[in-house]
Amino acid sequence: MRPPAQGDLLFDRELADLSRELRWREWMGRVEAAIFASQTPVPRENLSLLVGETCRLDELIADIQHELADRPYELAFVAGGWRHRTRPRFADAIRASGAAGGEGALKALSQTEHLVVTAIAYLQPVTRRDLSRLIGKEISRDIFARLKRLGLIGAGPRSPAPGAPLTYVTTKLFLEIFGLGSLRDLPDIEALEEAGLLARRAEQEEQPAIGEEFDRVLGIIPDDEQEEGEAPPHAGGQDSDDDRL
After folding, report:
1. What is the CATH number of domain 10-90?
2. Which residues, by range, are in coiled-coil regions (predicted)?
3. Among 2, 31, 48, 61, whose CB has the most other CB atoms within 10 angstroms?
4. Does CATH number 1.10.10.10 belong to domain 105-218?
5. Where are the beta strands (DSSP E) in 45-174?
6. Cα dihedral angle (116, 121, 125, 131), rounded to 10 degrees?
7. 15: left (phi over 0), alpha (psi -120 to 50) or beta
8. What angle do CA 22, 27, 30 make, to 5 degrees?
9. By CB neighbour count within 10 A (0-12 exposed, 13-18 middle, 19+ buried), where does 241 fall?
10. What is the pLDDT, as a whole number, of residue 172?
11. Tens of pLDDT along 83-141?
12. Cα 169 from chain centroid?
C-alpha cells in the first residue's frame, strides 16, 4: 500500500460525524466514483484507502452491485481489481456504436491466434515448440509477434530445456479483455487438469491426440489451412536462443 500523501492527512475516512446509514452511503459513493474514474481495474488496497477501518469492503461492493442490477453495466473483479463493465447482453449494441474499446483486439484475432493465446493462458510459461506440438502444427513466429503487439502476451522466463528457449505468458491486458479476475478464472481449468494438460514436464512424451483433446476441452478448432498473409512456418526442430521476437 502506498504511503499517505500530504493531502491524505486532511481526508476523512472514518466520517464519524455522520450517521451509520449516511456514512455507508458516502463510502459507497467514494468507492464507485474511484472505480468509475479509473481507466484500469482498481485494486482492493486502493479502495480501502477511501473507507473507514470498520468498513467491510466486500459488503460495500456487494451493495453497489445490487444497486446496479438494473443498469446496463456492473462492477466486476477483473485483472486483480474492480472496474465498471457493460453487461454481455449489450455487446451487440456496443459493437454497432463503434465503441468496442478493448474488444477490438479480441475481435481482430484469427482462429489460430485465439487458440494460441488461450493455450498460453492455460500452460504458461510455455515455449513455441511445446505449443506447436500441443496444437499439432507449427506455429509461426509472426503469430507470437502479433499477439505481443496487441499486448496480450509477453516474454516469460527462459525454459530449463536444452538451449534455454524463450517462453511466453499472458499479460494483465489479457485478463482485462477476457474479463477475468485472475488466471484461476479461466473456464474448464479442472477439465484441463484432469486431461493432464497442465501437468507439463520439461521433457514431454509424444501424445498424438493431445491437440484434439485440447480443442475439445476449449471448444475451439484450429485452422487446417495457414492463415492468409502468415509467414511460412519455421522449418527447424528445437527452439534455441534465437527464438525471440
Report:
1. 1.10.10.10
2. none
3. 31
4. yes
5. 73-78, 81-86, 126-127, 153-155, 167-170
6. -20
7. left
8. 125
9. exposed
10. 87
11. 988 887 887 787 677 665 555 556 678 888 888 888 898 888 999 989 888 888 888 88
12. 11
Sign of CA pseudo-dihedral 222, 130, 157, 237: negative
Half-sphere exposure of 111 (CA within 13 A, CB side): 13
User: pLDDT exceeding 90 applies to what percent of the chain?
Assistant: 30
Q: What angle do CA 219, 221, 222 make, to 5 degrees?
A: 140
Q: Are 114 and 155 in contact (CB under 8 A)?
A: no
Global confidence as pTM: 0.51
CA nearest to 143, candidates 218, 211, 234: 234
Beta strand ranges found along 50-202 (DSSP E): 73-78, 81-86, 126-127, 153-155, 167-170
Residue 148 has pLDDT above 80, yes or no: yes
Q: What share of the chain is helix, strand, coil (3-state, %, to 5)?
A: 45, 10, 45
pLDDT of residue 244: 42
* pLDDT over 70 at 82, yes or no: yes
State residue 118's pLDDT score: 86
Of 122, 111, 129, which is closest to residue 222 (Cα–Cα)? 111
Residue 28 has pLDDT above 60, yes or no: yes
pLDDT at 53 over 50: yes
Q: Note the pLDDT of residue 5.
A: 53
On the question of a common fold for 10-90 and 105-218, the answer reads: yes
